[in-house]
Amino acid sequence: MEELAKEAGITARTVRFYRERGLIPPPRREGRIAWYDEHHLARLHTIAALLERGHTLNGIADLATAFESGRDVGEVLGLGEPTEETPVRLSPEELADYFEGEVTPENLAAALDLGYLATDGDEIVHISRRLLDVSAALVREGVPLAVVLDTGRRVRAHADALAELFVEVLNTHTPQGGADRLRPLAKSVVDAELSMAMDRLLHRATDR
User: Fold this and answer.
1) 2, 10, 43, 111: which has the highest count of C-beta atoms within 10 A?
2) pLDDT (tens digit, 0 to 9) for every residue of the chain, 208 residues total?
3) DSSP letter at 183?
4) CA-to-CA distance for 203 and 143, rounded, in angstroms?
């Protein structure tokens, strides 16, 4: 514990306090010896960074609980299933910087439940660079992260229905393997229809 505290730049008493609060996991024990490793050190660095960003110890404890009860990266990404999205690896403090003031235990739990976030050791993995960037942009525009996540949940239901429709059409009317080649065309149809739908709604709102 003394060696870990020295590496982290804190006192052994603080390490003991964090362990008692559940902020760091228990050490590995061999007889009377307790062994700490690089994962404990990374967690201590994360705690220090989050404290600097204004998070309280109670809030950090809630975040740690949410992460540890969340799904791991293999479960979320399907262990190698093909995807066009690029996952992003983040530290907890980097995630806090993306959504300053919005990374609450409730929002974190919602993101884990949606599968936007997963855990991989001491790292956080966001399943999609595009979704991460768009979500952060919406928050910067003033949309609360809780609303962004709720909207994402609602959009997913429609996206699943659209995907089912296109896969059925493509599998029925294209040769084997043709669905992959026509996938960009299906996405273009959805993009165009969504654009026109928003035009219609905005036009009606302007008329009113």
Assistant:
1) 111
2) 899 999 999 999 999 999 888 888 888 888 888 899 888 888 888 888 888 877 788 888 877 777 776 666 666 555 445 567 888 888 888 888 888 888 888 888 888 888 898 877 677 889 899 999 999 999 999 999 999 999 999 999 999 999 898 888 877 877 766 666 777 888 899 999 999 999 999 888 777 6
3) H
4) 23
Would you tell me how many other CB atoms lie within 10 Å of the CB of residue 30?
Answer: 8
| Rounded CA separation 105/109 (Å) | 6
| Amino acid at the residue 42 | A
Residue 144 contacts residue 110 (beta carbons within 8 Å): no
Residue 31 φ/ψ region, left for φ over 0, alpha for ψ in the -120 to 50 degree band, beta for the rest: left
Q: Residue 14 and residue 175: Cα distance in Å, rounded?
A: 64
Q: What is the pTM of this model?
A: 0.71
